[in-house]
Amino acid sequence: MNKLNVAVIGMGVMGQSHARIYSELPHVNLVAVHDINQEHAENMAEQFQTTAVHNLEELLKDENVHAVSICTSDDQHFEVACKACDYHKHILIEKPLADNVEDAQGIIDKVKETGVKMMVGHTLRWDPRYYHAKQAVAAGKIGEPVHLHSRRNNSYQNGRRLKGRTSVVMFLGVHDLDAIEWITGDKIVEVSAVEVRKRLKEFDTADAIITTLKFESGTIGSYETSWVLPDNHVELDAKLDITGTDGVINIDILDQSIRVFEKDHKITFPDTMYGVDLYGTQTGIMKEELSTFVNNVLNDKEFPISVEEALRAVKVVRSIEQSLETGQPVKVN
Ligand SMILES: NC(=O)c1ccc[n+]([C@@H]2O[C@H](COP(=O)([O-])OP(=O)(O)OC[C@H]3O[C@@H](n4cnc5c(N)ncnc54)[C@H](O)[C@@H]3O)[C@@H](O)[C@H]2O)c1
């Protein structure tokens, strides 16, 4: 096989990003899209010049479909992923693998039973800044990590858009909690979290969560995540600071290395990394992630993130949610 035929399931914000990238990548045919909202699926099919298939089973039965991208909401991963396994489709599934540990483990069991290849879209694994941090720690450039701080804060618009269907730490935190363990090569063994509810009360969800982290090696850390950044701020503000015995790593994506001072006294920081339109084609981190999926399926290679690591990230997130529920520190097992 020298071309992968892919269908995208769930045509929201991420599904559209996947569909656009697949339609531009070599070695891929975007053969179908699917969404529970059929009218929306039709519009998307027209936009990406492909076919909308309204019955999921019919889409999965089609032998012309080799792989699927699952871009449904966090609470809609399990059933779709298990069905895709039943029909032997390779899977790129958006993070988090599932919104609870049982479903995440269930998907992994199904993947192993059916022998399909599955990659979980933990985007930071393809972010050059986080990749460099991983290389620097592994090469001993900062000595042994002593303490760290990380954050991922998103806009109030995004918090409202998701309407409490998932928690802020499941939606955003799962990225960094995976990245922190991957970069340090250490395990988070205990979490203690607090939350605040002021702006998203109507959706019965936390605005922000702050967690202290204890690691197997004795390293300590703190993690902050929010989805109530006011609309006059940036859409995404993320940071990672690791202090080691011999050096420090600082990642700060706030201003994207470009500041545009606009005529109405507005300052903007256009995305330079994630999904960047360059001469009419999308380039950046998402493209790298999807390219890895396609190339590694076609060439039968391992993915940079294992399914067990993706499960582990869900476990850490669930431990943080349990700490919020009980008001106590929780051991991560
Ligand atoms: N990697 C990243 O940086 C990143 C960023 C944002 C979101 N995500 C993840 O991507 C996934 C999708 O997020 P989003 O922001 O695009 O959500 P969204 O709400 O914009 O889109 C979800 C789409 O899936 C459809 N859908 C829901 N249930 C379905 C089902 N059972 N079958 C078919 N279609 C269904 C909805 O109609 C909607 O069009 C989530 O898991 C989210 O956590 C990842």
UniProtKB/TrEMBL annotation:
Coiled-coil annotated spans: none
GO MF annotation list: nucleotide binding
Top-level taxonomic group: Bacteria
Domain spans labelled Gfo/Idh/MocA-like oxidoreductase N-terminal: 4-122
InterPro entries: Gfo/Idh/MocA-like_OxRdtase_N, Gfo/Idh/MocA_Oxidoreductases, GFO_IDH_MocA-like_dom, NAD(P)-bd_dom_sf
Domain GFO/IDH/MocA-like oxidoreductase: 132-249
Record PANTHER family: BILIVERDIN REDUCTASE A (PTHR43377)
Protein name per the record: Dehydrogenase
UniProt source species: Oceanobacillus sojae
